[in-house]
Amino acid sequence: MSENSININWYPGHMTKAKRAMQEDIKLVDLVIEIVDARAPLSSRNPDIDELGKNKARIILLNKSDMADGRVNDLWEEYFKKQGLFVLKINARNGSGLKQVNSLVMEACAAKIERDRKRGIKNRPIRAMVVGIPNVGKSTFINSFAGKACTKTGNKPGVTRGNQWIRLNKNVELLDTPGILWPKFEDRRIGLNLALIGSIKDDILNIDELAVELIKFLTDRYPEALRARYSFDAGDDMTENLESIARARNCLLKGNELDLSKAATLLIDDFRSGHLGRLSLEMPKNQED
After folding, report:
1. In a domain, 182, yes or no
2. Could you tell me the pTM of the whole model?
3. Domain count, the chain
4. What is the structure's pLDDT at 176?
5. Among 68-72, 177-181, 228-232, where is mean pLDDT lowest?
6. Domain range spanning residue 44?
7. In whole angstroms, what is the distance from residue 233 CA to residue 91 CA?
8. Which of 33, 69, 102, 253 has the most CB within a 10 Å radius?
9. pLDDT (0 to 100) of residue 182
10. What b/e sequence results for 88-126 when a residue is b if at least 16 CB atoms lie within 10 Å of its CB, and e otherwise?
11. Where is the domain boundary, 155, 176, 197?
12. Domain assignment of residue 148, yes or no
């Protein structure tokens, strides 16, 4: 995304408490399962998790992979595997890829299972902590994976507030945790990506500016997405581009004046819902143009 991105910071007080609780709970688990948004896998990873789970087996689940660029998904899968992490592309909402999670858990914890066997410990379930920043689909994953509504879900960040254990089967227990961000985004593009995927509450954002940044990105990387959805070819003037979207979607105020704020909201909603097609906001650094 653009280096001149709007600056975004958000760290509600309850996240400090949640992080403290996770630091205590990490001692109880064998495995950390991290849910990230496949459209922005690096931006949607909390850097604190690497430190938190450094001595634990690790799985990365690229959720919403059906909404991300398929070619870029493959690059991210390769990238994380090179980091020594177990990786799987999933769609928690429709269950795609979830059947492979259980075997991946067993594979990731094979060394731990073998240690238990040698000590004569049998049938002890793998305890996995499920982590992820707000709105990456963590609760939806747990509900789909468990086959029942065992956690509260919502399409707004910050729904899960307390930690809870879920017994999946005789082999696996999950510890659900609240989604937490980190106090400061060192790279402005990270804050922008998180705003676009809905991990930061919209009521603290300038949606008009966010829409302009998205148009800049789409014009550069996916111009065909704007053309297919709104029937215009984007130019260098971002305000004119937003006006074209307003005309295409009949976003009007009284007197037939264009309602650019409504057009901005509509564009962001179209991106988040996948109506612009399969788009990835970032690529592994060695793959960037």
Report:
1. no
2. 0.87
3. 2
4. 84
5. 177-181
6. 13-176
7. 31
8. 33
9. 63
10. bbbbbbeeebbeebeebbeebbeebbeebeeeeeeeeeb
11. 176
12. yes
